[in-house]
Amino acid sequence: MSETVTYLEAIRLGLRSALAIDERVLLLGEDIGFGGGAFRATDGLQQEFGAERVRDTPISEAAFTGVAVGLALEGFRPVVEYQFADFLTSGMTAIVNTAAKMHFRHRIPVPLVIRAPSGGGFAGGPFHSQSPEAWFLRSPGLKVVCPATAEDAGLLLGAAIADPNPVLFFEQKNLYTRVKGELRFSLDEPLFGSVVRRAGNDLTVVTYGAALHLVLEAAEAVADRIDVEVIDLRVLCPLDWDAIAASVGRTSRLLVVHEDYAEYGVAAEVCSRAVSELFTELDAPPRRVGAVFHPIPFSPPLEAATLPSVEKIVAAIEEVTAF
Amino acid sequence: MRPSRPRPLRVQTIAVSAPPARATRAATVGLDDVLRSAGYFLHLIRAVEEAGRRLYLQGRLPGSFYDGRGQEAVSVGCALAMASEDIACPLIRDMGVHLVRGVTPAEMLRHYLGKAGGPMEGRDGNIHLGSFSRGTIPMVSHLPEMIPVGMGVALARQMRGQRAAAIAFCGEGATAGGVWHETLNLAGLWRAPLVVVVERNGWAYMTPSAKILPIERIADRAPGYAMHALSADGNDVLDVYERAQGALERARRGDGPTLLEVFTYRMHGHGAHDSQRYVPPEELEHWQTRDPLLRWASRAREELGWSDEEQEGLDQRVKDEVAAALEDAIAAPYPAADDLLASVFAT
Question: Cα B172 vs. chain centroid, distance in angstroms?
């Protein structure tokens, strides 16, 4: 019988399995070894696998991300931990220029995973609450992943480590201890594909990450009058467009929900593509729900007003359905 | 306002850590071969870069054009000191690394022209190239972002049990950047197998050294990062070779990283578009007399008994090779555009 674990435990045990299965896997990051990680995602791994494979680094994201790119070029499978996704800006050049463009420019793979805890909801303020996945979606050569369940945290981590490309792995820190599921890990799964989390006929809601749980709650709240289908994208790049198109083809209505800003991101892309490619299928204009387009404020009521909520999603579902 | 005159560079070989004994040099077998080989590559770089520059000035070379005129001895000396398992991160003044590691003049010229058959297949151009299988990593333009990447490759090789080191290049301008300091700190902390070569060529694009550096000598920073410090005369290919070889060997055997500061001069503008109007002419005249090819020739005459006939033979050989390479590159096709998307991701 399989084990039930939290999202965070799925990450930790996934990393542990990867280290045990594949000698090429290495971990690098601040506080990950001696300290066990700011969120304890690497707790005990340095004791088990040694300080060479689980390397503590100084506060120097640009340097250690560059080092990880070199390790990956040489065939290792480095997994870098950024303490918060907000800090990705400090290693941006190594990610979007050195790593992302290497295969295009020179045909050498860069099998690098960057783990970045993202998202808000716990008064982290402007520098510990961002959902910066869209920064990377516009950089060809990077794969972007956002697991929403404990099962997917393990499964997608394995798929990311096995993938021969640089992967941004956005862990939803708000889900770390909030969701539980079956522990699943494999280095043989492809890094692709969405999943239907709730089948329905009236409206397709496309979502991913922590927002999935808000969407499912909203879908339940309207279940007596609206039959909502919920697609969890899981992998944002490459995008599983065919699954979206098939669902919208049936429901004729589309809402995209994520914690990242509604503007310029996944929701903008999916809505734009739906209008271009599914225009004749649609019975209503596609809508999107995301964070309000200003920095994420600290004070709890202000933060709550900024991020998507069940109420905002219910309102949007009703609006798209009523059109 | 005209930029103020930079302080003249004192060119002097110093060794903060244990210097190689001079006696070793005379006794080392093979230095004659190094000198002979260096002569070929010094002349080859100059000929390839002159061919590229001509194409640019004729409007036949797309994009921009950068060369390492005056700095050829740095990349040649360092690359000749590399062992086969070492990895290099050359920048735009370091063509010698590519040529020494086996990139042919025809590949170089195809690369310049954006043709098929260059190491980057037209995905990148000018002097942004590398050949990982031959020991170089293609640079990105952001400075000095390649230093940690080279360090990572060398660390990986050492973890596999190979005796490998990385040698990464930058100018003094790049030493002001955060990545430089982050990486040297990490290298010192981990005693990484890394040699950082700082080419003191006097300029960061249009800005003279004195407006960039708060200190006289960059090697003075090495102890702050627990790195060894060395300096070399960057226009004397054998001096560069010997210093680089010592530093690489130290790195390979696990004795930690070295900061190697080499003093040279950028004889051309930042790129072929740059007229160097800001450079004092007397400074160029001074450094012209220290040209690394002339320095090489004088050492070759003295130490190899290099004759005028041999020099003519070398000149002719290089001229013929580059002429053939140019013909090849001009005739070569452009890469196909239809597999661009397929090369974004590895499969």
Answer: 13
The pLDDT assigned to B3 comes to 42
Pairing of strands B228-233, B207-208: unpaired
> Which of B132, B185, B343 shows the shortest C-beta gap to A60?
B185
pLDDT of B305-341, one tens digit each?
999 999 999 999 999 999 999 999 999 999 999 999 9
Least CB–CB distance from B186: residue in A67, A76, A141: A67
User: Where are the extended beta strands (E) located within chain B?
Assistant: 87-89, 166-171, 194-200, 203-204, 207-208, 228-233, 258-263
Report which residue type is found at B125.
G
Contacts of B120 in chain A (CB under 8 A): 105-106
Burial letters A32-52, b for 16+ CB under 10 A, else e = bbeebbbbbbbbebbeebeee
Q: Cα dist. B189→A55, A206, B223, B226, B252 in Å?
A: 12, 47, 12, 7, 16
**A-interface mutation test, from B153, B157, B189, most A Cβ less than 10 A away:** B153
Q: Which of residues 212-241 of A touch B (CB under 8 A)?
A: none
A267: alpha, beta or left? (left if phi > 0; alpha if psi -120 to 50): alpha
- Please check the confidence at residue B29 and state whether its pLDDT lies above 90: no
- SS3 assignment for A119-151: CCCCCCCCCCCCCCHHHHHCCCCCEEECCCCHH
Tell me whether A141 touches chain B (CB under 8 Å): yes
Residues of A known to be catalytic: 128
Using the Cβ of A107 and the Cβ atoms of chain B, whether some distance falls under 8 Å is answered with yes
Packing angle, helices B31-57 and B237-252, rounded to 10: 110
Strand ranges of the sheet holding B258-263, from the earlier edge strand across to the other edge:
B87-89, B166-171, B194-200, B258-263, B228-233
Q: Is A63 on the interface with B (CB under 8 A)?
A: yes
Give the mean pLDDT per block of 10 residues along chain A (323 residues).
90 98 97 96 98 98 98 98 98 98 97 98 96 98 98 98 98 98 95 98 98 98 98 98 98 98 97 98 98 98 98 98 96
| Euclidean distance between CA atoms A185 and A10, whole angstroms | 8
- What is the phi/psi pair of residue A181, to 5°? -175, -170
Is the Cβ pair B148, A73 closer than 8 Å? Answer: no
